Amino acid sequence: MFVKNPEYFLTIVKERSISKAAERLYLSQPYLSQYLARLEGSLGVVLLDRSHSPLRLTPAGELFHAYLERQSFLDRQLVSDLRDLQDKKRPVLHIGVSPWRGSILLPDVLPRFEEQYPDVQLVLHEAPVPDLGALAAANVIDFCVMQPPSDLTELTYEPMMGERIFLVGHRDHPLLQGLNSTYDAPRPFPDLRLLEHERIIMLPPGWRLSKLLYNRFSVYNLEPQNLLITTNTTTAINLAAEKLGFAFLQESGLSRTPYLDRLACFTVGEPPLACPLAVVYKKNGFLSPAARTLIDLIKELYSQFDWAGE
């Protein structure tokens, strides 16, 4: 259907106020109120609940707002695709991953993806996990690989797996003597409280994996006395491999480390502690066939690591 001046309605929703939207659009408030009344009359539904301040979408308004956002995205995508066709440019696919995730994921999936889409130019956006959702919400990227976002106002996601978290340390560390547990055949770590006075290498407290671990620490009444915080998972692996501490790492990433022969790997708890991983993208966004193919390849790769966990 054709909607005249859809940006008017989208601005009202964003500002949650007709007067504020009128200021932003450089329109008079009466004119914008009349626009809204005509729009609701033409659709035969009430879009905004005016009994609340700030304004709130009705169920019909939610549906209409989702339609306009989807239509706006498709319009921009069409213009971009037509421009690329006119300029004979290669189609472009923007994906977001953390630097560490990209280093262990892309070498496994890109060769197969390029077999099917040799003409697609892949643009990689590497950012810390907490920033990836913002890139997807802003339509900077087509999708990203991260933990499911807590705020689903602008985002949606497809679950991929519950990835086991391994506790890793140098196999010759005194604490691990007599405990034979490898990446290929991991055993549960006997008691997390044994780590209380050991150096534990952790990701920042606000990150999803760290939240899971701190919750597990509280279950065991564990208060680590020697924490080393890093945003770089490679740093954690390298330190553990040099007998400089213990780290908690995702199973899939460990498969590519060159230090597996040095590391003892343990699961945490029973059932094993696992962290959810998902493909995240803009709600009502458009996923091209190339994007969908790459997502399916990632899901296929990660299916081997899928565990039921918390």
Question: Your description of this structure?
Answer:
By secondary structure, the protein is an alpha/beta fold. 41% of the residues lie in helices and 21% in strands. The strands form two sheets. Strands 3, 4, 5, 6, 7, 8, 9, 10, 11 and 12 form a ten-stranded mixed β-sheet that branches. The chain has a two-stranded antiparallel ribbon with strand order 1-2. Helix 1 packs across helix 2 and helix 2 packs across helix 3. The longest helix has 28 residues. The model has no long low-confidence stretch (mean pLDDT 87).
- Following the backbone from N to C, one meets helices and strands in this order, namely HHHEEHEHEHEEEEHEHEHEEH
Computed CA radius of gyration, to the nearest angstrom = 25 Å
What share of residues is helical?
40-55%
Structural class: alpha/beta
Q: What are the segments in which pLDDT stays under 50 over at least 5 consecutive residues?
A: none
Shape: elongated
Which properties best describe this structure?
ten-stranded mixed β-sheet, elongated, 310 residues, two-stranded antiparallel sheet, alpha/beta
Give the gist of this structure.
By secondary structure, this protein is of the alpha/beta class. Helix content is 41%, strand content 21%.
